[in-house]
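S.,

Sequence below, as promised.
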Amino acid sequence: MNPIDRANKAKAVLESPAYTEAYEIVRQILINGLEALPTSATAEAEDFRKCLKLLKAVRQNMETAINTGKLEQFKLDEQEKRRNNPLRGIFR
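The prediction came back faster than expected:
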């Protein structure tokens, strides 16, 4: 899959109401679980913290895919502009 296709698919997922709702529900469940732990439950708190970091990493990975795709599309657009420039080759 090329970066532009990956970006389009990642954007569709991130903008999906079902994904957004699921993400927020899972995040809130993890936060509630973390807050409900006694302060002595350090191992369990660490597990919740790791889960929250992983959840955030998934979203960041998809946002990175979107940005990479935008950059790739920009490069392709610029190449196309240079290729179609009527002054191309005149000053060489």
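The radius of gyration is 22 Å.

Coffee later?
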